[in-house]
Amino acid sequence: MDAGSESLANISVETAHRDFEEVFRAHYPRIARVIARIVQDPSRAEELAADVFWKYLHGRRAHDESPGGWLYRAAVRIGLDELRRVRRREKYEPLLSWLGIAPSPEQLHAATQDQKHVRAVLDVLKRRDSALLVLRSEGLAYQEIAGILRLNETSLGTLLRRAQEAFRKEYVNRYGPQTF
């Protein structure tokens, strides 16, 4: 390649870059909104919009005349594909867990963190409150709990509500309301 054709190649690359930047600035906010309306998740919509523009950048020859139309069609398609993928996952995940297929590392980590948080809160509550909550979470009836803890069965509902409220307050105090 001689110096003249190399210079032309650089100019066409710069022009293509400028053209892409103009299309991106003009259409990205609307494309992200269209996808967000479909998937109901703004952050995921931004990722998918970036995918749409990546596809546009790497396959531009087919849609140079009307980038807006192509981008909107691609946005709707990618949004619907994502919606179908999420629905499929929601449909089949319970079956996979029933079959004993192992959860993902992220799910394991989140579950471990939740368990640590609950144990830490139970550790600082009154012993009776912790015992009430643990026994009730195991599915024991009021009569059984009252017998185990030697409490009056008629006051068990009130005691359990107070224990739950104490747990909630301590949990929110330690870890914030968004995690409860």
What order do the SSEs take from the amino end to the carboxyl end, as H and E? HHHHHHH
How many beta-strand runs?
0
CATH topology of the largest domain: Rna Polymerase Sigma Factor, Chain: A
The general outline is: elongated
**Poorly predicted sequence stretches spanning 5 or more consecutive residues:** none
Question: Which class of secondary structure composition applies to the elements?
Answer: mainly alpha
Provide the β-strand percentage band: under 5%
Q: Give the CATH architecture of the largest domain.
A: Orthogonal Bundle
Task: Provide a descriptive summary of the structure in words.
The protein contains seven helices and no strands. With 180 residues, the chain is mainly α. The chain folds into two domains: 3-98, Orthogonal Bundle (Rna Polymerase Sigma Factor, Chain: A), CATH 1.10.1740; 105-179, Winged helix-like DNA-binding domain superfamily/Winged helix DNA-binding domain (Arc Repressor Mutant, subunit A), CATH 1.10.10.
Quick take:
By secondary structure, the chain is mainly α.
List keywords for this structure.
Arc Repressor Mutant, subunit A; elongated; mainly alpha; Rna Polymerase Sigma Factor, Chain: A; 180 residues; 2 domains
Topology at a glance:
Elements: H1 3-39, H2 42-58, H3 67-98, H4 105-124, H5 127-137, H6 142-149, H7 156-175
